[in-house]
Amino acid sequence: MTSATSDDAHPYLRAASAGIRHHTRAASASPADRVHLDTLHTHLTALHQFLDRLADATRPSHPAAGRQLAAARTRLWQATAEVHSAFHLVPSPSAPADAAECHPERLAEGPPVLTICQRHLATGHSVRRKTTPTDLNAPLHGHASTCAS
Fold first, then answer.
1. What is the pLDDT of residues 55-106, one digit of tens each?
2. Which of 28, 42, 77, 126 is most buried, judged by most C-beta within 10 A?
3. Cis omega before residue 11 (within 30°)?
4. Contact at 8 Å (CB) between 105 and 90?
């Protein structure tokens, strides 16, 4: 069995990265809208799930690398939470004035608000099972870089 070369490895991850690079280059000076933030939140939550599984799979054979991936997962969750908050701060033409906050106990105005809140709550449940409040609030700690400066 031969191992895949870097060009053949992980084609879907490479495609996702290419899509992000495309949108970065194509981004105009216009502010983010709810559709962009919802799509970005979808991408971040999927990446969070991937990092979660990768950290769990890596930790037994390479504990230090697994811890680093778990730390990356925590930081990614923080970024995801900020994108979720930004989504609710961007005005919606159809939303009432008090709709700026996420209220899962009330029916939201429908997609994408209902969708982003459900996705965020589901991912948050996973985060709370594996992460302590201390981990979530800890400052980013310095790590020795493995890359030459």
1. 999 999 999 999 999 999 999 999 999 999 999 999 876 655 555 555 555 5
2. 77
3. no
4. no
